[in-house]
Batch of 4 targets.
Target 1
Amino acid sequence: MIDKKVYEDNIAYTIHQIGSIRGEKPGKKMLHKILYLVQAKGVNLDLEYGIHFYGPYSATLDATASALATDGIICFEYKGLSHLMGINDVYDVRSCLEGEEEATLKAVIERYKDKNPTDLELITTAHYVKDKLPAAEDESIIAGVRKIKADKYSETAIREAIGELNTFFV
């Protein structure tokens, strides 16, 4: 179990890094997906994910973001249906991740900086299915994504997401 302060610092740092690298504040959905992918790359963030309407979701991460807002560390900006997050200027953002872990966090953000939350939803859902079916062939992953997402994504889009998994998560 990661210390609460370390955990909160890592979440705040991630919000800051996403904003810095992408050039815009991340929404809650993007934060969930980026941290899911960072954890999938082997960084222990002590987050448990289940499948949700928008793909992999961590109730603990959601509660932590709310607590960070209550403590005045982050602020929410409501824009349409998005809950954009930024770091309050008075908070000194620092990471408790070390060397390779921090490099992995930045590499994931950099790789997916041009993806929108819906793209990340597909990639993380495909990864979630593949992770639950370790010996799964592409057809099984497609069927699993379809079971969760119905017709939200085309077969071509799902195959592209699987290709991304086979490239970046090997």
Target 2
Amino acid sequence: MNRAAARAEIFRKEPDYAAFERTLEEAHARIAIRILSYVVMPNHFHLVLWPSRGEGEEVSEFMRWLQVTHVQRWHAHHHSSGTGALYQGRFKAFPVQGGFSHFQYPAKVCRYVERNPLRAGLVDDARAWRWGSLWRRLSGSPEQRALLAAWPEGAYPGNTSWAERVNRPQGAVEEKALQASLTRGRPFGDPAWVSKAAARMDLDHTLRPRGRPKKLDKT
């Protein structure tokens, strides 16, 4: 995900959202990474990307082209070149435990992403938010739906069941864990996998409490 610098509103009207989606489609045409879910909000966006095994570099390449191209086009359209950064930085990301037997974790992330407009009070029903994968999957044309990757066989519950699930509040514990992954880059999955993934990817610091360690009492 990435957020606008100073939390400014960069998607102000429908053409702004549509322009980002066109750029997303172009990025996908160039680098065919699988897109499970996405949402574009007034001052940020989320993407759930699924690289093939051993192709993690795809994520950085895809995100670099998407953001650089979108920033250039946004400034050109708004006649604001040279006025400063559009986004806060590079982008934030965290790894998610996958595989068919553990696909509940990517599903939870997709649900969190697609609930964003509802959580923010922009709509009363998540299906009504035009600028994201939920609308595209349920109401988009065949060409629009083609942007989204298929889930593993048997993992997707069907449009009606999925929409109902997205519209239901997520549990407080699950939402807190997802927010921690978003803000700190912490791996998301079952505890054993999270520990192994953090060690393998040099992300141990994301599991430790923030702040200075407590001083030991001298005796």
Target 3
Amino acid sequence: MRPFPFDQQTEAGYVGPEWQERTGVAQLAQVLFRKAEDQFLMLAFYGDGSGEHGNGPFVVAGYLADSIDWFHLECDWERELKKSPSIRYFKARECVLRQQGNGSKEFSGEFFGWTTDAVRRKCTAMAQVLESYSPRMVAICSPMHWDVYHGVVGDDVFRQVFWTPYLFCAHGAIELALKKSNEQFKLYRGPVAFVFDTESAQLDADTRQHYDLAPNHLPSDLRSRCGSLTFTDDIKFPMLQPADFLAWSIRAQRAGQESPWVDTIFTNFAGGSHEIIMRPARLREIIRDTEDKFHKEYPDWKSQQVSLKARKKKK
């Protein structure tokens, strides 16, 4: 184990105006210290989802690493964001040329008005930051095609509980991250903290409820690894931005679109790139085991009164 570098220099990094509405890795870790010399190691998985509604592949993906590496990555990630031409944050969907009302094609958000070459150079630079940490991190991917989802869930009550493939993909990503924490982080035997980019109030709440029932579907050697589950915005918590980049890149590749950085940030990742395929038989097992326990655990959950159409509007 290594001492967490929480000192005056670390604290000074969070005094800028950009941190007034954001939270950094060291700020989260601060409450766990008794003194700066304490040896500290906490595993964390930061994940995000990507997928068109009802069509093509859906992906939940992210990275697993200890908090010290997350802190150092955060410092380098922020440094690269600020390099000229600078951006305040990184969102992969803003790197895509989209048709405008006047017929022209433009990038959006932080990349609005940029040239294609400039966007590619910035994305490549951000990908290289991730690559530099790849020997100490693990890349996780949990994909599902919407056709598979529709074929398993159908149109009955199961769709009320599992109303989006995100719930299956998030479960898969969590299970795979727990397995890899046992295999590749053997010095640390405590729980894994899970942080996901917020999707919607309804989906975040349902994902949490499904996570509370996750031990029902996990082997005993993984149950004790289930730590906290948190949802936050990837602009307010910058270390969710790498997960956004990863999930978007994998989904784009699986959809047959250009994905120039997927090899750098996933396929050839030095710490390992791991994918869990949720087979139909496994999905049916989760559905069967969950439905009864879900309603017993959450008797006030109004699944029967909330239609699928209403849920779609909330998302």
Target 4
Amino acid sequence: MSGAGGLLTKFKRWLHGPPGVVLPPGTSLLELDGFLPQGFRHGLELLNDNQTPMDFVVRILEKNAGLPRAEAVRAMLDVHFKGGKLIPMNTLNDAERAAMQISTAARQFNHPLLCRAVSIDK
């Protein structure tokens, strides 16, 4: 029976896709290669975790960061597979407002999602 159990485990892994990348909470994406979008000045920094549901991330990015659904899905996938994402916003005030709203919603639903406002000017 171990063969069938092994096959089931492989199927479950395939079904759920590859595991996501989780970076330490103190990570600054501004300091890592490959995360800084061209022209980025201010925005949101989101870091992946192993507990926050992907659909929750998409919904809060739509609602609080004003991203269209397709862009919110792409951002969520980047967070999951790369460990984090920098999302440009027009002003630091906009980023701070959105980060506060996202962090509050995450806490309300007991999700450990890390979202903070960042700026290259700081």
